[in-house]
Structure formats: structure tokens, C-alpha cells
Design goal:
alpha+beta, four-stranded antiparallel β-sheet, disordered N terminus
Length: 374
């Protein structure tokens, strides 16, 4: 019996000793690592301040070719759609009648000159007779007056020659300006007159070329100030809204009306563009981007900012200790998909762009550079 009690006591002591050993720690225990967020280091970037306006292409010069005398078109001397030079003959009008009128006017001059010689000789003869009292003073005065009248008749006849010469020259229709000529609106054999409403053709000068725009009276103040500072402002054209295709040549804003249209409240603007390939055609509608200024600004992606209940904007910034700070920012506008920040952050600050939803101010974070998609 005593032996059994001793064995039982030893067993209890052994069990008790085993229960005092430390329990193993649970697997995976310990503090969680800080979350990782994507940040963008804010730096000054060039920002172009532009205004986009609807515009319409208009020619630098355009002239309607019209006849100045009546007659039948006998010849067309140009190729439709071609480039013509100023002074190049385009049409020939039948000149037979005007050539005859010129010949008749020249004959009238000769007749008047012959008449003047006769009257001058008589006035000289009467002068000698007057000294001998063979003619009266009245007869002599009449002879002198008739000689002077003959001089006037010569001047009238010479003016008629000049007019007939002009009419004869007008049978040759010349290009008043250089440029691209349209199709001919009349054919050979057509009768034309000096007062007809239909032009013979139209010549358009395409290089350089104008783009006319409209801007509101209030909005044009900024443009006028910029023009006063720089003289001219660069302008680019968007030819296709769907594809974003731009015109390869840059233009200059060179003109602004000095009055506001009372009916529309807008001011007319005009830009000049080089057009060596004649790609821009009069009447074409386009969009013009006028560059007002280029400045260095702090830009923050719009997706990094949140709107607060009081309508203010805030961003999350990671400081030098990798702690999150909340900053309220002020903006002056947008540039693409970014805000132009005027206060609240400085160059060199690291703004959280992705992952700020899972952190709070004061939290420790790990950072990685933010990569914009697309």
C-alpha cells in the first residue's frame, strides 16, 4: 500500500512539472507592415494658357474678274483652277468695233489739226490786214477766236482717241491679282457687258490666308493685354475634332476689332497663317487655339484630390518621416486632367495619387512612384 502511494506521488510531480513549460507562440504573430501607396513628387511644369475659339478661313485677297466693255468672248487664255499672275491675260473680247472707233478718233484728230492750221493762217493774215485797215477789228478777233477753238477741238479729239484706246485695251481681260483662279463662269461665244452681275471668274490669293474668329467682349480683354505685351500671339488650328489632327503651320493673331458687336456681344479677331500647300480653303470652319502665355506651375492629378463638405480640395502628402499629412490646396484652374495648384503644397512634396483611401493622417506608409496609365 505504501509503495502504491509513493508511485502515485511521483506521477503527480512529473505531470505538474510538465505543465509549467512555456506555451509556444502562435504562428504568424507580430505587427503588420505599413501599407504601400503610390506618390508623385510635385515639380514646376510648363503650362500653356490657351483659349479655343471657332474660326472660319477667309482669303487674304479675292477679286472677281469682270468685263469693262461689251462684246463677245472670242478666247479663254487660262486653265481653270491654275495659278495666274497679276497682269496675265485671261479673256479676249471681240475688238473689231473698238479698233474701228479708235481709227475714227485718230482721224478726227487729224481733221482738227488741219482745221487749226487753216484758222491760224487766216488769223495771221488778218493781223497784217488790220495794220493796213483792210479788215475790221471784229473780223480779226473772230479769226483769232476760231483758231483758239480749233485748238480746243484738237484736245477733244485727242481725248476721244485716249478713250477709244482704253476701250480697245479693255477687250483684253487681265488678272487684277495673283492667285488661284476658279472655273470660268462664261464660255467662248458668250456676250458680256460692262454692267452684268455675273463675274467671268474669281481669283483668290491663298498664301498667306486668314482665319477669322469671334470672342466675347469680356474674354477678349485678356487677349488684348497679351497682344499689347508681345505684339502677336501664336495660334494653332485643329482641322478635325474627331481625330485631333492639327494644321502643321503655326499662325499669328495680328488683329482685333476695337468695337464690340452690339447684337452678339463679341469681338472679331483675325489670325494669319502660311498656306504654301493651299490646304486651307476659304469658307472652311475650324477651331483655333490662341496661346496667351507660358508659365511654370505646380500640377497635381485631379484623381489625387478629394472634395470636402465645405467644397475645398485636399490631398494626402507623405513627409520626410514617411508619415501621411492632409493638406488643403487652392487652385487657379485645370490643365488637362490636372489641377493648377497655387497654395497648400510646394515643389518637392510627395502627393499620394493611389492608395490614399486606405490611410489616415499620421499613419506610417511605404511609397513607390506613381505611374500614369495609358
Amino acid at each position: 500500500m505504501i509503495k502504491k502511494l509513493v508511485i502515485a506521488a511521483i506521477s503527480i510531480i512529473a505531470i505538474s512539472g510538465c505543465s509549467q513549460e512555456p506555451a509556444p507562440q502562435a504562428a504568424g504573430g507580430g505587427q503588420q507592415p505599413p501599407p504601400t501607396v503610390s506618390v508623385l513628387e510635385v515639380v514646376l511644369q510648363p503650362v500653356e494658357n490657351t483659349v479655343t475659339l471657332p474660326g472660319r478661313v477667309s482669303p487674304l485677297r479675292q477679286s472677281q474678274v469682270r468685263p469693262q466693255v461689251e462684246g463677245v468672248i472670242t478666247e479663254r487664255l487660262f486653265e481653270e483652277g491654275a495659278f495666274v499672275e497679276q497682269g496675265q491675260q485671261l479673256y479676249q473680247i471681240d475688238d473689231s468695233r473698238y479698233a474701228a472707233q479708235l481709227a475714227s478718233a485718230k482721224a478726227d484728230v487729224k481733221s482738227a489739226e488741219a482745221n487749226r492750221k487753216t484758222l491760224e493762217a487766216r488769223s495771221e493774215r488778218y493781223k497784217g490786214l488790220l495794220d493796213k485797215n483792210a479788215v475790221s477789228q471784229q473780223e480779226y478777233d473772230d479769226a483769232v477766236a476760231q483758231a483758239a477753238q480749233a485748238d480746243a477741238q484738237i484736245s477733244v479729239a485727242q481725248a476721244a482717241v485716249a478713250l477709244a484706246q482704253v476701250d480697245l485695251e479693255f477687250t483684253k481681260v487681265y488678272a487684277p491679282i495673283s492667285g488661284q483662279i476658279s472655273r470660268s463662269y462664261v464660255t467662248v461665244g458668250a456676250l458680256v457687258t460692262s454692267n452684268q452681275t455675273q463675274q467671268l471668274a474669281t481669283i483668290t490669293q491663298l498664301d498667306p490666308i486668314y482665319v477669322d474668329m469671334q470672342q466675347s467682349g469680356k474674354g477678349v480683354l485678356k487677349l488684348r493685354r497679351a497682344m499689347q505685351e508681345s505684339g502677336t500671339l501664336p495660334v494653332t488650328l485643329v482641322l478635325d475634332d474627331m481625330t485631333g489632327e492639327s494644321y502643321e503651320h503655326e499662325g499669328k493673331l495680328k488683329f482685333s476689332e476695337v468695337t464690340v458687336d452690339e447684337t452678339t456681344g463679341a469681338v472679331a479677331l483675325r489670325a494669319e497663317f502660311p498656306n504654301p500647300e493651299s490646304l486651307l480653303m476659304p469658307g472652311l470652319f475650324t477651331k483655333a487655339r490662341v496661346s496667351i502665355s507660358n508659365t511654370e506651375e505646380l500640377l497635381v492629378p485631379q484623381r489625387a484630390a478629394t472634395r470636402q463638405p465645405d467644397t475645398s480640395l485636399s490631398v494626402m502628402v507623405v513627409n520626410a518621416q514617411n508619415e501621411v499629412e492632409a493638406r488643403t490646396i487652392a487652385i487657379s484652374g485645370t490643365y488637362g486632367d490636372q489641377y493648377i495648384v497655387t497654395s497648400g503644397i510646394s515643389a518637392g512634396d510627395k502627393v499620394i495619387v493611389a492608395g490614399y483611401q486606405k490611410v489616415r493622417p499620421g499613419a506610417q506608409v511605404n511609397t513607390k512612384p506613381w505611374q500614369p496609365q495609358g
